[in-house]
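Re: the request from the purification team.
They wanted to know what the chain is likely to look like in 3D before they choose a buffer screen. I agreed to run a prediction and write the result into the notebook, where they can find it.
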Amino acid sequence: AQRAIEALGRQDAGPVFATPEWAMWTERTYRHAAPDGRFRVAADVYTAWTHYTFRRLQEFWEASAAALEQARRVGDTHMIVYATFAFLTLGAPPELEGERSRVAEEFATFPRAGIRPAPLAQILNAIGFVFLSGGQRDRTEAVWQELDDFARRVGDPYVQAWQVWPEASRLAFAGELDAAVEVVQRFAGSAAGVEPFGQSVAAFDVSPLLVRLGRFEEALAYRQYWGAFLGMEGMAAYAQAAAGFMDEARRETQRLIAEGGTTAENDWTATGTLVYLLATTILTRDMDVLRMLYRRLAGFGELYSPEAYSTVARQLGLAVLLLDDPPAA
């Protein structure tokens, strides 16, 4: 059952978590798993990914955290990796970043022996971006270098799919946006890139770069993929606003806020989505929504959103200027 689940995930990524096949193998895993055994951890993680797909966000993060605790008690290396990746995947609300950073630090020194290539690539990708979200650039670079070396050593196309975003991000940070786009587009034409998962990865990686280059038509061609990833959903609004389609941007903003239950108080909306929505309202000048999103993100200015290539503080500063408070900005 576990091999079947992993094959499904590798073939089609996010959408597969909502399929009858995924549900069938999850149920079979539960049926044959001991209550306190390693396969119960696996079944709980499978269920968490289904919550993710249907945007039952509180259930996803709570199930991921519980599975990680159970994996630690069981002590099985593969289950610890599997549950850790779920808990560290992109798309957490800002309130979780402190705990996620602690988990990333814990895994950074975890022995690599016995970890298969695909899950190791996944977890290294996740750890790097958790460190980046917390502003730990040196630790991010160390993990990314380990992922680079590992990808070259094993030559697995699936591993390369997890390495391409860090490679593109480095170039983007250096201001080489065109080169970053070329890296992703070259990957999209590779053995891994032509598979459904690879196409989703390429769309996730290249869309924000294209928007920043003003290549809006190319970016909007990837819109069908944005909703598959927590944290990237807000691109549906931001890309429209950046391209000058303000009415469309406002409609997408309202839709995402309504569907996500986003409020000025604590909720489960991803940091990346919140940053994209705030950046959108800065452009559309929807002041009531801007005030709400500003209040939601206030206090998290130290965070960075890898999905949006922006610090939270930058968007808060731009927002408060519109709110006519230059000293606060």
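For the purification team: The chain is about 70% helix and 0% strand.
Please add any questions underneath this entry.
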